[in-house]
Amino acid sequence: MLVKVFGSAVFGVEATTITVEVNTEKGIGYHLVGLPDSAIKESSFRIAAALKNNSYQFPGKKIIVNMAPADLRKEGSAYDLTIAVGILAASSQITSKEIENYIIMGELSLDGTLQPIKGALS
């Protein structure tokens, strides 16, 4: 199942919407594409732990995460929550009906606690 979730990136004084597409399908593996940095590539470990520690399941399927636009470098752990919500919706653990109406950002700790992110006002 394919789900779109939206985040944001700040480049200078401009904010750019980042579309995070999450697709689950038969198979195994976790694939992250769209010019992510190493912190984003490591997000699968934080996300899996956060989901399990909050009574959700990290799907036993092939997960493909595409971050667009592909030509912009995505940096930091601020996309943890964006990707996690996409995984939950793509695996039908939450409804995907309303998530396209929001910008979702946040770093996840291993217990699922949201951590502050750089460049965001709370």
Assigned CATH architecture: 2-Layer Sandwich
Q: Spans of 5+ residues with little confidence (pLDDT < 50)?
A: none
**Percent in helix:** 10-25%
Q: N-to-C terminal Cα separation, in Å? A: 32 Å
Question: Which structural category fits the helices and strands?
Answer: alpha+beta
Structure, explained:
With 122 residues, the chain is of the alpha+beta class. Helix 2 packs across helix 3 (80-90). It contains 3 helices and 6 strands. The model has no long low-confidence stretch (mean pLDDT 93).
Task: Spell out the blueprint of helices and strands.
Layout: E1 2-11, E2 14-25, E3 30-33, H1 38-41, H2 43-52, E4 62-68, H3 80-90, E5 107-108, E6 114-115
Parallel strand pairs: 3-4
Antiparallel strand pairs: 1-2, 2-4, 5-6
Helix pairs in contact: 2-3
Key features?
30% strand; globular; 122 residues; two-stranded antiparallel sheet; single chain; 20% helix; 4-stranded mixed β-sheet; Ribosomal Protein S5, domain 2; alpha+beta; 3 helices
Entry summary:
The protein has 122 residues and is an alpha+beta fold.
